[in-house]
Amino acid sequence: MQRLTDLFKVRWFKLVFSITFSLYFLFYQVVDRIILFQNIVLPKGVYLVVDTSTPVPPSQMPYPLWGPFISITSNYLDWAITPLSLGVSFILSFLVALNVSLYLALFRLMQMSSTHRLAASLGLLATSLSCSCELFTALIGATVSNIPFMISIGFMDTLGITLTLVAGIILTLSSLVIASEITGSRPFSWMRGNYAIAVAIILLTSYLLIPQSQTFFLVRITDMTMAGGVIAYAASKRLRLRGNPLLFWVSAGLITAEIVGFPLMVPVVSALLSLIAGAVGYLGYSTLKPWARLGLLHVVGWTLIMPGPISLILGQPIPFFNLVGDQAILFWITAWIFGTPIAWLAGIQYLQYIRDSMVNYSPTKMDLRLPPRRAQFPWQWFLLGGVAVVSQMLFFMTHPQDFLDYNGYDMVFLEAMTLASTLLITAGLVLIGYGVYELIRDRYGIPRISNKHFLIAVVIYGVLEMIATKMLVIAPSGYPYPPILLLTYGEPMYAPAVTIYIPNIIGFYIYPVSLLALISSSLLAGYIWALVFQTRRNRLGSLTAFSLITACPSCGLSAMGYVMSSLVTAASFLASTYAQIGMTLLSLSLLVGLLVYVLRTSKGTCDLKK
């Protein structure tokens, strides 16, 4: 079976991906008012103006126009550019284009392997329904600036970030699931009934976090109904409960009673009724025919979704009892967010139902006319990662007050800037790391190792790393702050940070750069040690030497970076702010060099370039 990335070498796939990417990128820029197409009167003789100053103070700039700013103005358009706006536009456009292209690839496979004449038509319908859900999801991330109400800039920015994250998560999950359908892999095969309780706990916790106001009434009903259904699912698997179709109508009656009694409903009673409705509803839902279950999921999901887009199109919200204006808009937008994963799940299950019932194809024997695979230098990952990291470091050096100075700045602004910049730097480092992985895999291959040995090595090195870099402190004392302390804004990659400790027992200090270094160095060192143990276990001296050498970069250099960062003054930017990042990169480089050496000298690998 060839890799999924080989699809990008198919001509029609590249064409669909490129067109969809370009159209959505332009769509996002226009709808989010990053690009304004209008007649602009410039001074006589001036045709193009490039400006690096924001039109209002930086703390008042709306999301996603945060960061190093540049605007390009002509007589026909005004385009405001920041690394964050370009990054969000690029990521969402990439995910939308990937989803559309993967859906078409899956539909083509189903069409080529149909055993029933209706399979192609039903597959097209299912593909359209499911893919349109992703497009609606992507639409949410671009509509914030067009929402016809303004509570505050801070609220609008928070809503914009939330909608963008929701869109990104749903689109990413959809890409993984559709890719698994095409290749035959099962990335979520471990999610069985044993994990239903964990899902139920997450839903119950979400309910506690949802504000107890009428604006979020429908969202609370949906959340608790889903929690009740998941609990009933877990109970039915363990206790082998049998359902009855009448229970579905009992559930529908309870939900209807809640909605009709909305103005008088007490939150506690509503939560209890929703939980019961979800539990009995699942027991009735499970007895229905597959096509009926899928139809119900679609009805529920799209009923929650559609009032949001309709309200945006009309320019005014659809009233719900006494909820009007901005309350009604927020009411339907939150329902839109909750309905999206339900409709997406229905579309995915519909495609799986058609595949299992009317299609006969083997993912291991795909015939998409893929060209022979050729190894190429993955320059794009290094370029994207480098731009993300360097741009944010330069922005912090030139605008430290946007991260550190609370005097005169909105706390939400400082927190949002810190989080956004930290996420961009993290994403850039991950992209660079992936580029290194691609280089090594294309040159030497990645041998399989024992999961047991790998896990043991990762845990050991992880603990050593945490102790050496003071992420973990044994028996802390004399610390006058609360047991849990959050630092929500500050230097990118050093904030957000959290301190958790039990006096005289154990303490943790975790911040992004330390967590990223911990994960990457532990995984690298664990893989190196497990591979050496697997290939040289009969040579104890060699194995011991490699154990010491591997521990040196991951713990020794990181500890040195920590000491340097602790001793220098705060005014020394180069030493205090990014000295540890430099030491971390150096230690990871040494670990990568060790990995290459081990791969070259292992019996189970060879140089693929020779």
UniProtKB/TrEMBL annotation:
The organism is Metallosphaera yellowstonensis MK1
**What stretch or stretches form a coiled coil here?**
none
Q: What is this protein called?
A: Uncharacterized protein
Tagged with keyword Transferase: no
Name the keywords, alphabetized.
Answer: Membrane, Transmembrane, Transmembrane helix
Organism domain of life: Archaea
Q: State if Transmembrane is listed as a keyword.
A: yes
Q: Which residues cross the membrane?
A: 12-31, 84-106, 118-140, 160-180, 192-210, 216-234, 246-265, 271-288, 295-314, 329-351, 379-399, 411-434, 454-475, 509-533, 545-565, 577-599
